[in-house]
Automatic annotation (TrEMBL):
The keyword Transmembrane helix does not apply. The lineage of its organism: Bacteria, Bacillati, Actinomycetota, Actinomycetes, Kitasatosporales. This is Sortase A. The keyword Hydrolase applies. Gene3D superfamilies: Sortase (2.40.260.10). Its EC number is 3.4.22.70. Pfam families: Sortase. It comes from Actinacidiphila cocklensis.
């Protein structure tokens, strides 16, 4: 598919239907995350390919949003191989992906190359926090990563 920024993300199997905002890099070189506020959308790392282009398109979302409760990716760890993910793009087309696998990994062992490295097909990476929440605002020790491949475009 031609380059076109993502506008909306739908994951019927876990009840996600959200807008998508663009995210750049923070001063320390890490990918920014969506704001921690009520109804915070998913975010697309604009340094990655757009969904449907060759390569891994990376979308991030919160599992929780502080005092506001559940985040948009609260149930990302429930996804299974074969589940569908649809991304509506700015040009009006929809890129549809099927989940290949779901991985939970310690943040200290984040698989940077596997997530952001080049692949020879249109791919999608969905990322959120995971594991048991650390008390006193310590966040989460893990990341949940969904790997998916393009199965259709319209």
């Amino acid at each position: 598919m031609a380059k076109s920024a993502p506008q909306r993300l739908r994951i019927p199997g876990i009840g996600v239907d959200t807008g998508v905002m663009a995210l750049g890099l923070a001063a320390d070189g890490t990918v920014r995350v969506p704001p921690i506020k009520a109804h915070s959308p998913a975010g697309w790392y604009d340094g990655s390919p757009t969904p449907g282009e060759t390569g891994p398109s990376v979308l991030l979302g919160h599992v929780t949003v502080g005092a506001y409760g559940d985040g948009v990716f609260r149930h990302l760890d429930r996804m299974r191989p074969g589940d569908r993910v649809a991304v509506t793009r700015a040009d009006g087309s929809t890129a549809t992906f099927a989940v290949d696998r779901v991985q939970t990994v310690a943040k200290s062992r984040f698989p940077t190359e596997e997530v952001y490295g080049n692949v020879d097909h249109p791919a999608l990476r969905l990322i959120t926090c995971g594991g048991t929440r650390i008390s006193d605002g310590g966040g989460y020790p893990d990341n949940v990563i969904v790997y998916a491949s393009l199965v259709g475009g319209s």
